[in-house]
Amino acid sequence: MQARLTVSDLACRRGDRVLCRGLSLALQSGNACHVTGANGIGKTTLLRSCAGLLTPFAGTVESEGAIGLLDERMGLDPDLPLGRALAFWQKIDGCADVDAAVEAMGLGNLLDIPVRYLSTGQRKRAGLARLIAQAAPIWLLDEPLSGLDTRAIEQVTALIASHCEGGGIALVASHQTLSIAGLTTLELTDYAPRTEPAA
Amino acid sequence: MITALLKRDLARFFPFTGSGAALPVIFFLAVAMLYPFAVGPNAPLLARTGGGVVWIAALLAAILPLDSLVARDIELGVFDQLKLRGVTEEVSMAVRLAAHWLSFGPPLILATLPAAALLNLDGETLHILLLGLLAGTPGLAAIGLMIASLTGSLRAGAALSGLLLIPLALPILIFGAGALARMDEASLGFVAAISLLLVAIAPFAAGAAIRAAREG
Questions:
Q1: How far is A178 from chain B (nearest CA, A)?
Q2: Does any CB of chain A come closer than 8 Å to the CB of residue B8?
Q3: How is residue A195 annotated by DSSP?
């Protein structure tokens, strides 16, 4: 799987505020990058800009390969049983089966339960199962470890590592430390504008 | 992919299977039932004014599904995920328009038959009324979809969308109900033309609204 994500001289904006500027980043197949920084520094905005969901204030984002995004909104119907909610995305993605992803995330016995009854951690794992089944080479993960128990954190860390070993790209915004070999760190504080513009 | 989207939308909106989606039809019938109680059992009066009441009931019933039409999927991030998979907002909105109309247009047209009996409408009036609703409900659905997308990210969106729909639906109401007053099918052509125009622009306007909501 050949993938590339190039960000050059990007400036992100939320409302009237510029959150980061002059940010450049080049990720090739196999690269993992950890985005860090205080709350509100623009991690989510950066990820959404990389996904092409937000228009950059300045600079460009180029990507080669499909993009999978995991944020706090899983896109799973709260009223549907988990199995059917995942089956919808399976149909959209056209992937052969979602069972492997479900097993990998340990959701096998939750498939009949409506999504609204799932706990925070279970919902996050459901989102990860959707992401795995999508089989996109570029993963943009926004706080993938929040709400997960110790065992699931290890599982997800291993999952990201194996995704990158398989030629994928992972851009992970997280407050937790990630133990992944070859992980680079992007400290967003370095790109914050020096003077706060008047609101 | 389009089939999967349409199936999901229909399952959400269709009467008696979706979440409370039968409400517009029940509301529509309730208005038709209340009117004779309010003006008294005067058969000629009911027959003369009943068609207009059905139109007003249809217009008000079109407001009911708006709050769940788009806002929930913006909140769930469904449009974000679809965009990443190459399904543009315009496509998902076109599919949603079809699903929205199917879930409220035909049921409303069917419910017009018992409503016509309650209001003592004669055969010719019913004929023009049914044709008018067939021509007008796609337009109402398109206006509703555009408004629901524009107000989807607002906190008081649901209340606002009702107020916004009424003035925008006026042309459809004027020509649709006007055809009843003159017993003339010609002005239904105008209703159909307005509907066609609205249906044509709705996916683009609604798609742009969803993109704008993301940037907000």
A1: 25
A2: yes
A3: S
B91-146, pLDDT tens digit by residue? 999 999 999 999 889 999 999 999 999 998 999 999 999 999 999 999 999 999 99
Comparing CB atoms, the residue among B85, B87, B215 nearest residue A54 is B215
CB contact under 8 A, A75 and B78: yes
pLDDT tens across B172-212, in order? 999 999 998 888 888 899 999 999 999 999 999 999 999 99
Assigned token pair, B91 = 């496509």
Model pTM?
A: 0.91
ipTM confidence: 0.90
Partner B contacted by A40 (CB < 8 A): no
* β-bridge partners, A60: A8
- pLDDT the model gives residue A197: 54
Q: Which residues contact B213 (CB under 8 A, 6 or more apart)?
A: B74, B149, B152, B153
Half-sphere exposure of B19 (CA within 13 A, CB side): 13
The Cα–Cα gap between A67 and A62 comes to 11
Count of alpha carbons within 13 angstroms of residue A82, beta-carbon side: 28
Kindly give the residue spans of alpha helices, DSSP state H, lying in chain A: 43-50, 82-93, 99-104, 120-134, 150-165
